[in-house]
Amino acid sequence: MPRREELERLGQSGSTLAIHLSINNIAGWCARSRRANGDDCPVVVAYRVSWPDERFIRGTLSTIRALVKAAAITRTALILVGPALGQTGFADSRLYAASTAMCSGSGAERSGLTDLWSCSAHRPPPSPGALPA
Question: pTM of this prediction?
Fold first, then answer.
């Protein structure tokens, strides 16, 4: 693996890492990640996401190995590691809230999503030779 892609180096950025196909090497990536992030860095193991039996196991770099072992997870897992996973006390995203619609009151809100083409301010210009709407 190139040096710039080593877990220790990536972990120093403070970003959230997504580690795939490594659940069977949990001891190795935990040890390498701990050097950059510390023992208390939050971890989420997402098992069989979008399947009926999906599970999310939350822990820290010092506890996740035992939690995963106790849950008998040996495959089909995505591992997320980073400080952002432990944050609390913030508002949920308002990206798709009706109050953030760019054309509020113009009929642009549909099911909480913004349909920009229904707002004349965001409609693309007509094609040359097109009939007016």
Answer: 0.63
